[in-house]
């Protein structure tokens, strides 16, 4: 299973694209601005979209992508998300004011997009080229949100994505039961902005350390940091590097922390 990083920034700037991951060419996880780097053919090959929540940096490209590929597809694009996320999309995006209602175009019997509610703890099987098992994981954010664990139907190792979240014990309770191959976790703000991170329910390096301390004993896998704000990325990276150095100084087994980059391809 391959995970292509289309966007992993917490905001936009030159070479910074917001959250979106393409799995095996047919499954998109979040639809941030990174989707715009796909070709027409690549967009048209996507059959399913998993959304973590309704915030703009995670859904910005969805209406535009639908407009782009509608005439190239023979079946609706399936969007899977929490019920509250779907309701927000219908009320505030696909409302014939901000954007056409593609769930009723060209007709309600044959629309360009269909919406499919998911619930925390639910498991899905999606994927045409290679079936994938998806589990919906809990997240703690300012709007209803979730994360995802995805694995190839023939494999056991999971690609786990936290989504946007603050401290989240139920997430770790479940993740520690999985065979994790790669974890992608957000750290949106530096410690200097800790109060803002807490208010907006995002992680900072200090709270990231609290979260990573909940990884079960004997569990060791690459941990990729995502969703850093462009203006603070270097500061966040420096603070997380300092955490790693502190763990080594205390002879605590350090975590394998890496920096996620757009255009990277992660293989499980």
UniProtKB/TrEMBL annotation:
Pfam families: Lactamase_B_2. Its EC number is 3.1.4.17. This is 3',5'-cyclic-nucleotide phosphodiesterase. GO terms for molecular function: 3',5'-cyclic-nucleotide phosphodiesterase activity. Residues 17-219 form the Metallo-beta-lactamase domain. Gene3D superfamilies: Ribonuclease Z/Hydroxyacylglutathione hydrolase-like. Keywords: Hydrolase. It is an enzyme of class 3 (hydrolase). CDD domains: class_II_PDE_MBL-fold. The keyword Hydrolase applies.
């Amino acid at each position: 299973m391959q995970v292509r990083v289309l966007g992993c920034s917490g905001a936009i700037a030159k070479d910074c694209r917001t959250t979106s991951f393409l799995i095996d060419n047919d499954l998109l996880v979040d639809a941030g601005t990174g989707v715009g780097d796909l070709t027409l053919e690549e967009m048209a090959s996507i059959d399913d979209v998993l959304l973590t929540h309704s915030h703009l940096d995670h859904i910005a490209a969805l209406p535009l992508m639908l407009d782009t590929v509608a005439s190239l597809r023979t079946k609706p694009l399936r969007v899977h998300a929490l019920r509250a996320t779907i309701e927000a999309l219908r009320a505030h995006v696909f409302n014939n004011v901000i954007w056409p209602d593609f769930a009723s175009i060209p007709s309600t019997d044959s629309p360009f997009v269909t919406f499919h509610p998911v619930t925390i703890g639910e498991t899905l099987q999606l994927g045409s080229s290679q079936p994938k098992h998806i589990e919906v994981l809990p997240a703690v954010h300012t709007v209803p949100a979730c994360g995802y664990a995805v694995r190839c139907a023939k494999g056991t190792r999971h690609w786990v994505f936290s989504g946007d979240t603050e401290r989240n014990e139920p997430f770790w309770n479940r993740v520690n039961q999985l065979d994790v191959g790669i974890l992608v976790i957000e750290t949106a703000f530096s410690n200097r902005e800790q109060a803002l991170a807490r208010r907006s329910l995002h992680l900072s390096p200090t709270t990231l350390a609290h979260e990573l301390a909940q990884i079960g004993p004997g569990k060791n896998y690459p941990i990729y940091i995502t969703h850093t704000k462009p203006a603070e990325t270097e500061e966040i990276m420096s603070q997380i590097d300092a955490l790693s150095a502190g763990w080594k100084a205390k002879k605590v087994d350090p975590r394998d922390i890496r920096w996620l980059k757009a255009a990277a391809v992660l293989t499980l």
